[in-house]
Amino acid sequence: MEPKKIFPAADAHCDFLYGMAQYGYDIAKPKAAQSIRLDKMREGGVKLQFFAAWIDMLLDQNPLSQCMGMIDCYYRMLDENPQLVPLTRDFDPAGEKIASVLTVEGGEAIEAFIPNLHILRRLGVRAMTLTWNDANRLAYPAAKKMKKGLTPLGKEVIREMCRIGVAVDLAHLGDPGIDDVLSIATRPVFASHSNARALCGAPRCLRDEHIKAIAAQGGVIGVNFYHKQLTEEKIATIEDVIRHIAHIVEVGGVNCAALGSDFDGMNRYVEGLETSAGYPLISERLLALGLSEKEVERIMFRNLYEYILQFV
Fold first, then answer.
1. Is 46 helix (H, G, I), strand (E, B) or coil?
2. Calpha distance 219→249 (Å, rounded)
3. Alpha-carbon dihedral of residues 44, 46, 49, 54, nearest 10 degrees?
4. Angle 130-134-140 (CA atoms, 0-180°, nearest 5)?
């Protein structure tokens, strides 16, 4: 049965720009392996999409140059697709346009030089993670289960991000690093694509105490669709996505739950959530849980939208 209502949707993370830079992805003329597709975004009701410049430390190219290449991809995408626009304070979600936000995944991009952070902000970057899966000069990642948090430089970067208005993204950061950020951040922080550890033991998932702390600050948490962060079973389903959303709502309240698909950042997808066209299936199931239409609209769109507006 087709969903009865299409809610506006906001997605806090995708890796499309890396695919555009490395594999020639085109949002309007997609390749077979590509998830972020303009037609599927429209079909799923997407009104806000975050585009991450993911820094791949296995490439020979230096991190800042990689980042600049993907920022160039972002602006070429906007030039070629007038339906996509940078998010502004006067953006109308009821209109025909889809708003976009440029982010960075991996603090390696600033190459340990804070003026580079300033330049990225001027180029349109509105959020950044400190790490991906490797330790760097700013912080230690969740992936390595290290008992270290932010470096002194990392703490300085967090303070500067808060000062100039770049949202601190806790995704991929280890628990001690999250504790450090929460203790020094002067603006609300968020986790663009992180799930609940109470439901899946992956270190990339958030402990309940961190969910509560992010929510208490006015931050949001985008649930991702990566099977290894949804379940410890071999196959994840859309019901696992719903369980994580429901848990975050239960622990942190309805105002902190959001979506952070991680589209184009994985090689296996949840059935029905291979593209943005699957978003109405999520809203349909959230309604079936007993959430009101207003609550579902907050989770699907408004929480992330209202959060990021303070950094625009």
1. strand
2. 13
3. 0
4. 55
CA distance 88 to 48: 11
Q: Dump pLDDT digits (tens) for 74-111.
A: 999 999 999 999 999 999 999 999 999 999 999 999 99
Task: Give the DSSP letter of residue 144.
Answer: T
Whose tokens are 């230096």? That residue is 62
How does 211-250 read in b/e, with b if 16+ C-beta sit within 10 Å? bebbbebebbbbbbbbbebbbeeeebbbebbbbbbbbbbe
Confidence of residue 4 (pLDDT cuts 50, 70, 90): low
Find out whether 158 and 181 touch, Cβ atoms under 8 Å. yes
* The two structure tokens encoding residue 299: 């989770």
Look-up: residue for tokens 């504790």? Answer: 179
Say if residues 168 and 126 touch (Cβ distance below 8 Å): no
The tokens for 155 are 């703490």
Continuous segment of H or E residues that includes residue 103: strand 98-105
C-alpha 23/C-alpha 202 separation (Å) is 29
Domain boundaries, the chain: 9-309
Averaged pLDDT for residues 275-302? 97
- Distance between CA 223 and CA 226 in Å, rounded? 9
User: 81 in the Ramachandran plot: left (φ > 0), alpha (ψ -120 to 50) or beta?
Assistant: beta
Which of these ranges, 13-22, 146-155, 292-301, has the smallest mean pLDDT? Answer: 146-155
Q: What are phi and psi of 23, to 5 degrees?
A: -125, 5
Is 9-309 a domain of CATH 3.20.20.140? Answer: yes
